[in-house]
Predict the 3D structure of the following.
Amino acid sequence: MIVAAFALLMDTGCNGQNKNNMETFQETSLQNEQTSNSGNMSKSIVIFFSHAGDNYSVGVIETGNTKIVADHISEITGADQFEIFTHKYDGMAYTPLIELAKEEANKGELPPYEGTTPDLSQYDTVFIGGPVWWGTYPQVMFTLFKDINLDGKTVIPFTTHEGSGLASCASDVRKAFPKAKVTCEFSIYGHEVRSGKAKVERWLTTSCQ
């Protein structure tokens, strides 16, 4: 009876130890899988210029149209942001602003932007967005383009506009970054962006998959 009781005790102890070992193994495997999946996730950033103040169709606005789209992208995808700032256009009414933008485009001017160039080494995907001024992005964006390297990255251009669509923005991005994969272009009317989050989400979850 003593021997039988001892054998039963040993069997129970071994089963408990095996169960604990199995639970530990499963927990460790799950952690490793989560770590592996996290390591495979693409990290993205939205680089954009957005003009607040007097805008065509929507009037004077506190938050620029492109900024709203950039915020939608970040909320949906978790992407970081780098906003291109310049004080050159501050407080300008719409008509003198577009005349200045036309002059800059014709002369190929590259207005300076505020702050330092972003470190993009940690990002796999880069969204690039802005309004369409005279058939392409505002010239200040091209100033930044000369200071960054997007070789080997996935680059996704987007625009806000009032009839120009993408214009030459996507093709100009391809020229600026010939060694990047430029894909999944998107455009949206400026007057739609405040109620257009669903449209942005459809683009991100269907066209960009």
Remarks:
- Helices lie at 2-40, 65-77, 94-107, 139-145, 169-176, 197-207.
- The chain has two domains: 1-41, 42-207.
- The chain has a mean pLDDT of 86.
- The longest strand covers residues 154-161.
